[in-house]
């Protein structure tokens, strides 16, 4: 090959390389640009004491898949709204918001309201969405609803969530999200039961009675403590994973068990009550970060979850 041809080929390769670098730069700038813009917006809202949150709707969009739905009974989703970052940082004024939703054509969707107010007095509000099949559904069929809440002002924020129901049988499931060299993993427990069970008699309710979510929410705090949707035992070996004791979910745990290793005491089990139609995430730190403890239902999990 002549020097001239080599020079032309080299220039061509350089152009291709520069073009690839330019594309990568644009893509990276776009991703980080959105992140920076979002972070600045969040900082601005916090500086105005504006907190607009939900247990199920998120600014980046939340997705939920409920397995083993009966496909016959109505399914209720309770969306709790709040205007607090934590117990100390709360919004000192009312926040009005609008609710919009869309859903699949194989269900009827009823919503308790299309607008609401999170009052400064309680910093909390809620609304319900009920999905009812309008046609016969078979095992494996799915229905969905997407819910959006948007604050009216003076500051704007939109949070959304998409719920997909898969026809099957209501139950409890769990999975472990992990990857090699990640210092921690997350245990996700999902309760798809749409009712509560009375554990201690009160009023006209007897032990073993089932009550709906609406009935449960109307109870006093004292009577709520006498009911549960599902209760689980969580067991693990602290030689492999260590519970993040700062996790809010863990702080609600009971029946905490411990074991001693090399003279030190470690938590190795605890129990937890999980509300109806709710998912909880619990963080564990890995003693060997090179391990990958991902669990999706097959094999033997590093953390076991069982109902009681």
List the helices and strands and how they pair.
Elements: H1 3-47, E1 53-54, E2 62-69, E3 75-82, E4 95-103, E5 107-111, E6 115-118, E7 124-133, E8 142-153, E9 158-167, E10 172-177, E11 184-191, E12 195-198, E13 210-212, H2 213-217, H3 221-224, E14 227-228, E15 230-236, E16 241-243, H4 248-251, E17 254-261, E18 264-274, E19 278-286, E20 303-307
Parallel strand pairs: 2-9
Antiparallel strand pairs: 1-3, 3-7, 4-6, 4-8, 5-7, 8-9, 10-11, 11-19, 12-13, 12-14, 15-18, 15-20, 16-19, 17-18
What would your notes on this structure say?
The chain is of the alpha+beta class. Helices cover 19% and strands 44% of the residues. The strands form five sheets. The protein has a five-stranded mixed β-sheet, with no helix packed on it. Strands 1-3-7-5 form a four-stranded antiparallel β-sheet, with no helix packed on it. Strand 8 (142-153) and strand 9 (158-167) form a beta hairpin. The model is unreliable at 29-38 (pLDDT under 50).
Helicity, as a percent range = 10-25%
Mean pLDDT: 86
Alpha carbon gyration radius: 25 Å
Q: How much strand content do the residues show?
A: 35-45%
Q: Which regions are unreliable across 5 or more consecutive residues at pLDDT < 50?
A: 29-38
The biggest beta sheet is recorded as:
5 strands, mixed
Order of helices and strands: HEEEEEEEEEEEEEHHEEEHEEEE
What distance lies between the first and last C-alpha atoms, to the nearest angstrom?
Answer: 78 Å
Q: Please count the helical segments.
A: 4
List keywords for this structure.
single chain, 308 residues, alpha+beta, 5-stranded mixed β-sheet, 4-stranded antiparallel β-sheet
